[in-house]
Design a protein that fits this description.
single chain; mainly alpha; three-stranded antiparallel β-sheet; 2% strand; globular; disordered N terminus
Length: 575
């Protein structure tokens, strides 16, 4: 009894202070939580019946209820009566709204233990030095989730109004579920810290008791202001300073009669707190995850192969074809690692080839590499076409104009940024290009403005039309200019990739062999982005080889697995 009284006094002190709940241990917990922002649902654990319990919120009306032997369990936001009691005389309780988009199950994926066991995230850490979680606010999937969230909280708004005016079984169940879900998220965040304060988590669960909350809502004596203030105090102790303003607004919402908005805001802020903690955890464990990446991914692959959860038929067929081709080219004499780096490079740069299943972790990265290689070819083609257009204009009456090709090259790189495609078909009246890409009209506008700066005059409509025709003609796949540019870019990429493979280096300095095809075509300005792209290709393939080398050597029948990749292992480990 003394222990329970001490806990209650402690929690009441926390409520009155509003902020200092085990602050030191909770501040540390931010470095060890981890996660995801996916929306999911699951079983919501609830408290069982309590005999002669005081209402959880002391000023909630002094309601005192005795248990009738009733035990309830909420499953994915619904209520199910399990045993007898007076409440059965009123019929089965109505279903509450489902779990909110942000709930304890989605946030569990942000725990550091979940992060450390997430193969794809562990793989991304190898290649993304600034990897961090962010709320997904763009793209079609994000828009779909936002619409679903708006519909969900609109329904909650109706249930909150009902519980404040004429409580129904559904409205009471909904608000109870939301309050309990907030309680469980907070308790789990407290438990997940490095100091894992289980006693404080138990106090939080005791203070916000489901049965008492439900009874208070049914009788119209639920103190929303006190409950939200208590929750906000715990959140403040867990949050980084930049979240404090958002937490302070929760109580203001309640004061203005906007309980539904306060509940939604609490879930949003808890997600932000959890994301902050996950990012701190990633930063804390980043070096460890990078150092153990190969061993972890090998273990994961071995388990997946034994379970049959990954299909290797297409990878095996691709590798066997690659070995035959390598023998025909004489590459096999240099060792399997050299063979792999060459044939895998060709795979990565050839967008007509499908990516084998064993490259699934890098599928998106390979598509990005192919897109960047395509962009470099387009930039080169636009530069040469535009240079020809300027020279034609200069011969027609602007002979004294000096054309600075280096500044033109820089402008072309800016007009078509990394990761963007040019949508040439827009000139034929097609729909607007995807966000982030460059439309043909945008490209024309940028080049027209550049030409006007060079010649210090406004371009005539006939000259703009000629510029359009020049670019569209060069953009055709059968155009000799485009073919030459793509061939030079591809040749330079292969030479630079071979240079990195031979030297096991991570240099972004272009080699002489790679710069030569660029120099012959007046495309030397592409050397820096091309060298960076070759470096990305080498890093992806070198890591892949280290992880899956046992598989490839087993298919090839090689007996010298360790000796062949010693230099490659040292090179990748140095990163």
């Amino acid at each position: 009894m003394q222990g329970r009284a001490h806990k209650r006094r402690s929690l009441e002190a926390v409520h009155s202070a509003g902020i200092n709940v085990q602050n030191s241990s909770m501040q540390q917990s931010r470095t060890a939580a981890g996660g995801s922002a996916a929306v999911s649902a699951g079983n919501v654990r609830t408290a069982h019946g309590h005999a002669a319990r005081e209402p959880a919120h002391g000023n909630g009306g002094g309601l005192r209820q005795h248990s009738t032997g009733t035990t309830q369990r909420h499953v994915a936001g619904s209520s199910r009566q399990q045993t007898g009691g007076d409440s059965e005389k009123r019929g089965s309780p109505a279903q509450a709204c489902g779990l909110p988009p942000v709930n304890r199950y989605t946030l569990r994926e942000l725990k550091i233990s979940s992060i450390l066991q997430n193969p794809r995230l562990r793989h991304e850490v190898v290649f993304e030095p600034k990897l961090e979680f962010r709320p997904n606010s763009s793209g079609q999937l994000a828009e779909t989730k936002q619409r679903a969230a708006m519909q969900y909280w609109a329904e909650v708004e109706q249930q909150v109004r009902a519980v404040q005016t004429a409580p129904t079984a559904r409205s009471v169940a909904t608000v109870t579920m939301l309050v309990v879900e907030l309680r469980e998220i907070l308790a789990e965040m407290i438990e997940d810290g490095p100091s894992a304060d289980a006693s404080l988590a138990a106090e939080v669960r005791e203070r916000i008791d489901e049965t008492c909350v439900r009874q208070q809502l049914q009788h119209g004596v639920f103190d929303a202001a006190q409950t939200v203030a208590f929750i906000a105090g715990l959140m403040r102790s867990l949050a980084q300073p930049q979240r404090h303003a958002a937490i302070a607004r929760l109580s203001l919402y309640v004061q203005r009669g906007r309980l539904a908005r306060a509940l939604r805001g609490a879930f949003d802020v808890l997600e932000a707190i959890k994301i902050d903690a996950a990012n701190s955890g990633i930063e804390l464990y980043r070096d460890f995850m990078r150092a153990t990446a190969v061993a972890f991914e090998r273990s994961h692959f071995s388990i997946s192969a034994r379970r049959g959860s990954i299909t290797l038929n297409d990878t095996t067929a691709w590798w066997q074809r690659a070995l035959l081709d390598a023998r025909a080219r004489g590459l096999h004499v240099h060792g399997l690692d050299t063979v792999f780096l060459n044939v895998a490079r060709d795979l990565v740069l050839d967008d007509s080839q499908s990516v084998p299943a064993l490259f699934r972790m890098d599928d998106a990265r390979i598509q990005t590499i192919r897109r960047e290689a395509e962009r470099l070819g387009v930039v080169g083609m636009v530069f040469l076409s535009f240079s020809q257009f300027l020279q034609l204009l200069a011969r027609r009456g602007n002979k004294g104009i000096r054309i600075d090709h280096s500044s033109i090259a820089a402008e072309c790189l800016q007009l078509i940024p990394e990761g963007c495609r040019v949508h040439w078909a827009e000139s034929l009246g097609s729909r607007k290009p995807p966000r982030g890409d460059v439309s043909f009209s945008q490209l024309i506008d940028g080049l027209r403005a550049l030409a006007e700066r060079i010649f210090d005059r406004v371009m005539l409509p006939s000259e703009v039309a000629m510029l359009e025709r020049t670019l569209l003609r060069a953009a055709r796949h059968e155009c000799p200019l485009r073919e030459v540019v793509e061939d030079r870019v591809s040749q330079a990429l292969c030479e630079q990739s071979d240079f990195l493979s031979r030297n096991r280096s991570h240099s972004e300095t272009i080699s002489s062999a790679a710069s030569e095809p660029l120099r012959r075509s007046m495309l030397l300005f592409l050397a820096p982005p091309l060298a960076a792209l070759a470096q990305r290709i080498y890093c992806v393939l070198a890591h892949h080889w280290l992880v899956y080398k046992p598989f490839y050597t087993s298919v090839s029948g090689s007996k010298s697995a360790k000796s062949e990749s010693a230099a490659l292992t040292d090179s990748v480990s140095a990163r």
